């Protein structure tokens, strides 16, 4: 029991530290929301009378000379109530609402892509590890090269080939704008169709890592005594590979997968930007550009909680799976 | 790169960004977006791109800074002021207006037979309610309204002011969006409501909203008859470059911003035309006033004027602005629109397009500067070396400042461009922490240079270095200008003879001091589909300022467009 309490205590401290950084780091950025808004309005060709500034200062409540410390306390109090504050860039919409609108897109896109990439990488890794020394080994350098290609570059190439040249896939957006978002077949089909290329980008660039890790673990497990024993018992090759070798080899990858799930929420800003995808990445960009502290904090909070949560789950599960991690010393 | 969203300036002039991300969008759109988005083609829907990058968040509150649209389209003002011409405003909800002699009372006659889009009748009470509302809520009062409105009868409203307010007219009449009392009365805090279902009197009403696009539909009961354009769809794309590329693919009918090879739009985009209208003035802003804390060689007017003379504007226009800019007057009246107001007392009615290096040298030498070993002028051991701040990714401005660096070097002035992120740059500008920066000055709510002078040259709109100036960033002020501005507020805008001496005084003071060094008058370029729609503004008939993001001018254009064929 003490093991779990200690773990939970550690995560509580980590969460507090992350929340505090969330609060202070955005405020170190130059500029303030009102100035950004004013300059933006002016540059839209609008006439920005000086009284506009006064109006928006009052509106956004940023002219307060309230000390940072008090702002920090009210930020923590707000979080405790689940209140992320009002977004400045799309005032007066609450930051939580903005996040709610875009988070599902990222979770589904990046989440599914990560899952596919994991299954594919682990599966291929298992085979290449089992049949090491055959032509399958070529898969390792091939996928590593793809993983080394920068995300956005890969995305651009996919767009140029499958969108531009072949015209197989749409190139922008999350769905066809004439459809109504909702749980109807037409919309879901459109969303799936639009999500294919972005998902493919993520899968191609991340599958190499899973494959390499799994293959190397596989290579060392096939030399274990229990694999030899299984073979000696005359079990079928397939059964030895999956139930004896792969089962043990996959453990580190599972831990890695749980952690990478935490990063799903952070999405992949660049991929989303390339495809004009309506996810959280674009919102984070918008928040940073507009000094929208509330939205930035909200998004960082969601990311932090997701990463910490995933780590916590892995930690706790490991305690169960492998009692050695629980033992003191 | 892609982090430089095209936000404001992008929209204004559409900076061409060098970004991989844009390339993707390019490729995407060039491909014609086979996977959909073809909706709207051929059914008379006008598709516009305002520069929106990223999703839309619903907001149709005409008084919210983050509103998506509504000015003039869904909600109407009393009159429409054409920014491009000094002419009588077009009647909208009002039909006539008159000031009393001293500019403290404004009487407005309202249009009869107007209904809100929910069927209720529009009356003087709605006007009074709207004006009272913005007066009561400082957060809504972006026009600085300080009057008192009373309904004389159903179609007459009287607005009284404490002081002469002739120049508040274009704000009150042209920029206050009338809202229905019967619906807005119940809203507790109108600044915090996003008005999901807007009800207005305008030519269009909200049809559908989706985060990637929203659509306005024609109002069948509009007082001026149902508009010929039945639907207007606003698209969100990933940025400017995407806009230009969507245009190439024929996916949008109207966007404002430069495209590669502006002169060849008709050839490169079959069916499309481009129009460029000079409106905002590109300047080198200087932190000019020593007394307010500015430091550096640019605090000396001789240096500012030497820069003014040493610039090769023809070369700048060609290299940086695709020759879409035009001449600028050192008195900052627009050379075309405000021709009648240009002062005869100006030394240069228009800034020289060719460099005058010898005059620059003469100015500096008379002020006691001598060339040092490196060929740079110096005085008291301090060389005339300046940094110009420019926003990363604003490629036209970056080209411009690089070119200026070479031009000014010939005149013995050393300038070094410094690229900053947009936030950092706008912070430096607001706080006065710069020597030079490149930006543009903008105009007011009607075709009258008074507003520009009031915004950028008044002592009321400036602040010390370290405090935020809004928007007289140069920190410069002059009693002659302040006096003239105060006097202009009390003179009817119709009284051109009475106003001219004050405009002369301002222009002469500006030419003498040059707190903002005139570069060129920037043109705003729009590309539009002339094959699908007719009735676009042209150079001969410039009935509104043609920029898709210019509200409410866009609504006037929407009203007049007709599907072709």
TrEMBL record, chain A:
Family recorded in the similarity comment: Belongs to the binding-protein-dependent transport system permease family.
Residue ranges annotated for the ABC transmembrane type-1 domain, each copy included: 103-318
Provenance organism: Streptomyces zingiberis
Main location group: membrane
Keywords linked to the UniProt accession: Membrane, Transmembrane, Transmembrane helix, Transport
Membrane topology field: Multi-pass membrane protein
Protein name: ABC transporter permease
Transmembrane annotation, as ranges: 9-29, 107-130, 151-171, 191-212, 249-270, 299-321
Keyword Protein biosynthesis found: no
Cross-referenced Pfam families: BPD_transp_1 (PF00528)
Localization (cell): Cell membrane; Membrane
Domain of life: Bacteria
Automatic annotation (TrEMBL), chain B:
Coiled coil: none
Stretches assigned to the Solute-binding protein family domain: 88-460
Swiss-Prot/TrEMBL keywords: Signal, Transport
Entry-linked Pfam families: SBP_bac_5
SUPFAM superfamilies in the record: Periplasmic binding protein-like II
Family classification: Belongs to the bacterial solute-binding protein 5 family.
Identification of the protein by name: ABC transporter substrate-binding protein
């Amino acid at each position: 029991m003490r093991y779990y309490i200690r773990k939970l205590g550690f995560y509580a401290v980590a969460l507090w530290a992350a929340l505090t950084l969330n609060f202070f780091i955005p405020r170190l950025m130059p500029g303030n929301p009102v100035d950004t808004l004013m300059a933006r309005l002016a540059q839209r060709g609008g006439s920005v009378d000086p009284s506009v500034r006064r109006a928006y200062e009052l509106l956004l409540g940023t002219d307060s000379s309230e000390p940072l410390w008090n702002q920090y306390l009210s930020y923590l109090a707000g979080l405790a109530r689940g209140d992320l504050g009002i977004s400045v860039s799309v005032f007066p919409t609450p930051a939580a609402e903005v996040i709610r609108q875009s988070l599902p897109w990222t979770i589904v896109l990046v989440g599914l892509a990560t899952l596919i990439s994991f299954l594919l990488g682990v599966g291929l890794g298992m085979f290449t590890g089992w049949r090491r020394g055959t032509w399958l080994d070529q898969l390792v350098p091939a996928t590593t090269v793809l993983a080394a290609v920068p995300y956005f570059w890969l995305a651009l190439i996919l767009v140029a080939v499958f969108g531009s040249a072949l015209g197989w896939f749409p190139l922008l957006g999350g769905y066809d704008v004439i459809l109504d978002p909702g749980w109807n077949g037409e919309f879901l089909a459109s969303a799936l169709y639009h999500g294919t290329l972005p998902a493919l980008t993520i899968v191609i660039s991340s599958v190499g890592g899973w494959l390499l890790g799994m293959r190397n673990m596989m290579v060392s497990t096939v030399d274990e005594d229990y694999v030899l024993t299984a073979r000696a018992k005359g079990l079928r090759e397939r059964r030895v590979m999956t139930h004896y070798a792969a089962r043990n080899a996959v453990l580190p990858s599972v831990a890695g997968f749980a952690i990478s799930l935490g990063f799903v929420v952070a999405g992949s800003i660049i991929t989303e930007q390339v495809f004009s995808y309506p996810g959280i990445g674009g919102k984070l960009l918008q928040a940073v550009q507009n000094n929208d502290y509330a939205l930035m904090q909200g998004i960082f909070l969601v990311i932090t909680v997701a990463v910490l949560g995933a780590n916590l789950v892995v930690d706790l599960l490991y305690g169960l799976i492998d009692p050695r991690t629980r033992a003191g010393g | 790169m892609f982090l430089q969203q095209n936000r404001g300036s992008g929209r204004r002039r559409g900076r061409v960004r060098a970004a991989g991300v844009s390339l993707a969008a390019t490729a995407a759109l060039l491909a014609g977006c086979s996977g959909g988005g073809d909706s709207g083609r051929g059914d008379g829907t006008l598709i516009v791109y305002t520069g929106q990058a990223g999703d839309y968040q619903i907001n149709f509150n005409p008084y919210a800074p983050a509103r998506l649209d509504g000015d003039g389209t869904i909600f109407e003002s009393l009159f429409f002021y054409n920014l491009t011409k000094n002419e009588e405003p077009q009647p909208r909800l009002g039909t006539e207006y008159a000031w009393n002699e001293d500019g403290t009372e404004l009487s407005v006659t309202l249009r009869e037979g107007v209904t809100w889009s929910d069927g209720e009748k529009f009356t003087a009470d709605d006007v009074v309610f709207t004006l009272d509302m913005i007066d009561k809520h400082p957060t809504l009062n972006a026009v600085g309204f300080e009057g008192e409105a009373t309904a004389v009868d159903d179609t007459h409203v009287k607005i009284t002011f404490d002081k002469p307010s002739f120049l508040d007219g274009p704000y009150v009449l042209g920029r206050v969006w009338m809202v229905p009392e019967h619906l807005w009365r119940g809203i507790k805090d109108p600044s915090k409501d996003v008005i999901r279902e807007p009800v207005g009197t305008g030519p269009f009403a909200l049809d559908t909203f989706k985060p990637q696009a929203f659509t306005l539909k024609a109002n069948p009961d509009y007082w001026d008859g149902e508009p010929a354009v039945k639907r207007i769809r606003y698209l969100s794309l990933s940025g400017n470059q995407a806009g230009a590329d969507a245009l190439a693919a024929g996916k949008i009918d109207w966007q404002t911003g430069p495209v590669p090879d502006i002169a060849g739009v008709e050839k490169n985009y079959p069916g499309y035309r481009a129009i460029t209208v000079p409106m905002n003035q590109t300047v080198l802003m200087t932190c000019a006033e020593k007394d307010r804390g500015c430091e550096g060689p640019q605090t000396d007017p001789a240096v500012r004027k030497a820069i003014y003379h040493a610039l090769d504007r023809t070369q700048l226009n060609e290299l940086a602005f695709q020759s879409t800019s035009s001449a600028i007057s050192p008195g900052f009246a627009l050379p075309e629109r405000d021709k009648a107001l240009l002062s005869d007392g100006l030394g240069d009615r228009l800034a020289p397009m060719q460099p005058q290096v010898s005059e620059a040298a003469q100015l500096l030498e008379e002020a006691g500067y001598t060339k040092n070993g490196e060929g740079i002028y110096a005085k008291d051991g301090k060389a005339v070396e300046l940094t110009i701040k420019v926003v990363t990714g604003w490629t036209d401005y970056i080209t411009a400042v690089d070119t200026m660096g070479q031009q000014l070097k010939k005149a013995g002035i050393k300038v070094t461009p410094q690229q900053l992120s947009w936030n950092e740059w706008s912070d430096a500008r607001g706080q006065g922490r710069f020597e030079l920066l490149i930006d543009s000055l903008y105009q007011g709510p009607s075709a009258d240079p008074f507003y520009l002078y009031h915004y950028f040259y008044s002592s009321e709109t400036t602040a010390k270095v370290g405090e935020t100036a809004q928007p007289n960033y140069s920190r410069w002020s002059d009693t002659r200008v302040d006096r003239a501005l105060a006097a202009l507020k009390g003179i009817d805008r119709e009284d051109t003879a009475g106003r001219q001496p004050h405009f002369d005084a301002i222009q002469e003071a500006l030419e003498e001091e040059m707190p903002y060094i005139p570069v060129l008058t920037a043109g705003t370029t729009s590309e539009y589909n002339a094959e699908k729609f007719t009735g676009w503004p042209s150079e001969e008939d410039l009935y509104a300022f043609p920029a898709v993001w210019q509200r409410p001018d866009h609504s006037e254009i929407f009203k007049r467009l007709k599907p072709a064929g």
